[in-house]
Amino acid sequence: MSNTARRRVGIAGAVVGTASAGVAAAALAKRYAVGRIRLRPDLEMSEPLGELRGEPVRVTTSDGVSLYAEVDGLETSPLTVVLCHGYTLNLDSWHYQRRDLRESYRLVLWDQRAHGRSPRAGAEGSTIDRLGDDLAEVIAELVPGPCVLVGHSMGGMTVMALAERYPELFGDKIKGVALISTSAGKLAEISLGLPALLSRAVHKVTPSTVALLGRGGALVDKGRQAGNDVAFLLLRHLGFGDPKSVSPTVVDFAESMIRSTPFEVIADFYPALMSHDKLSALGVLDDVPTSIIVGDKDWLTPIEHSRAIAAALPRAQLTEVPGTSHLIQLERPTVVNDALRDLLKRAAAEPGGGEPGRTPPGEKRQ
User: Fold this and answer.
1) pLDDT digit string (tens) for 30-47?
2) Phi and psi torsions of 32, nearest 5°
3) What does the angle CA 9 – CA 15 – CA 19 come to, to the nearest 5 degrees?
4) How far apart are CA 264 and CA 119, in angstroms?
5) Which residues contact 218 (CB under 8 A, 6 or more apart)?
6) Per residue in 277-287, pLDDT tens?
7) Which residue segments constitute the domains of the chain, with CATH numbers given?
8) Which of 19, 171, 228, 247 is exposed most, by the fewest CB atoms within 10 A?
9) Helices 228-238 and 217-226 meet at what angle, rounded to 10?
10) Residue 291 in contact with residue 342, Cβ under 8 Å?
11) What's the chain's average pLDDT?
């Protein structure tokens, strides 16, 4: 080998070696950072996140999907609270709300199709309208009397789809609604916290990228399992408004739910979320007490989207929580629970809402 060739090989080897060392150093720094975060005092370490359970039931939908649900709480309560979780999460994302409300109210929690313990439905069944139909069937099967619907993120969109497709339920069966960190539409226009030009570029390439990755979902999922330290750091900064104060245990809990959602499912639902538009259906919700809750640092469903919903619902109560992001029910559970309890009191005072001395529809006073 000539001296020139040897020099080229040497330079190439040095470049590769330097790059490898850089990757290794970055990985080490990442692990060190995550390790330091997890060594901090954590009051939530003993919290049984994801361990609270109710009576497991299955609801078979009109298109043959066997949805998983749990009935929990005070069975004698005349008012049922139906909790609808968000995109890539599952019913356990309501841990703190379940813990707080189960002694006072009857609860129905369910895994939306292709999430949690509910089976896959394919791209054709992964639409917001279909989720609205699913919710109608869950209510028909598991809610004997009046109820209040609580929806986070995609769960809020599910409630809006229900309002559009089954408006007759609101004011009769459904006595109140809570919309948490959600949107009535135009998610494809959000900035993601990026400058306008970059944001437009990201939105332009993201759908095709998600679709492409979805076709290789199994391989992507293997990579997601291997990269959970990176996912931890990203979720800590994006899913929560104050990364320094949020519990590492809570971040791990949320990240494990997201990671357990197959990427093919993420890809199947992505177009439906981006094209979601239910602003015209919001008027139905004005017939019942409605609570809108959002964090002012929510980058996924920004605060402007909740304000737009509130503008369409003059009677609704809007709660804006400072320093809080998209996973508000996990980050600030006390604030969310207080708002829900206030809503439930207002709903119970509605005619047929289950207030003491009232008889729920379809039941005879003994």
Assistant:
1) 343 444 455 566 778 889
2) -65, -45
3) 145
4) 13
5) none
6) 998 999 999 99
7) 54-290+319-356 (3.40.50.1820)
8) 19
9) 80
10) yes
11) 81
